[in-house]
Amino acid sequence: MSTSVIPAAPIATPVVTAEVRTVALLLGTAILALIVYYFIGVDEGALSVFGKSMYVHEFFHDGRHFLGFPCH
After folding, report:
1. 3-state class (DSSP) for residue 57
2. Other Cβ atoms within 10 Å of 64 Cβ, number
3. Residue 41 buriedness (CB in 10 A; 0-12 / 13-18 / 19+)
4. CA-CA-CA-CA torsion for 21, 22, 25, 26, nearest 10 degrees?
5. Is the pLDDT of residue 54 over 80?
6. Is the pTM of this model over 0.85?
7. How far is CA 38 from CA 54, 65, 68, in A?
């Protein structure tokens, strides 16, 4: 009785190319930039996601004026 060894089939691993990583990085950066832009430039009054709370507005108040966003 002889035993034969059957070689295992290679496991297919997904290849993430540099282009996919670059697109993911750019998309993440764009989303983060839009969130920062919203809190610095838009979050005020009726457009606030926090209702009538002005905590976020006051936290970014000086930076808002420094960057040229009017708020009053």
Report:
1. helix
2. 20
3. middle
4. -150
5. no
6. no
7. 14, 14, 14
Which residue has 């540099």 as its token pair?
Answer: 18
Residue showing tokens 């004026």: 65
Query: Residue 57 in contact with residue 39, Cβ under 8 Å?
Result: no
C-alpha to C-alpha distance for 40 and 62, rounded to whole angstroms = 10
Residue 37 is which amino acid?
Answer: Y
The domain spans of the chain are: 42-72
Q: What tokens were used for 69? A: 């966003």
Pick the residue with more confidence: 35 or 59?
35
How do residues 14-51 score in pLDDT, each as one tens digit? 666 778 889 999 999 999 999 888 877 777 766 677 77
Which one is predicted more confidently, 58 or 71? 58
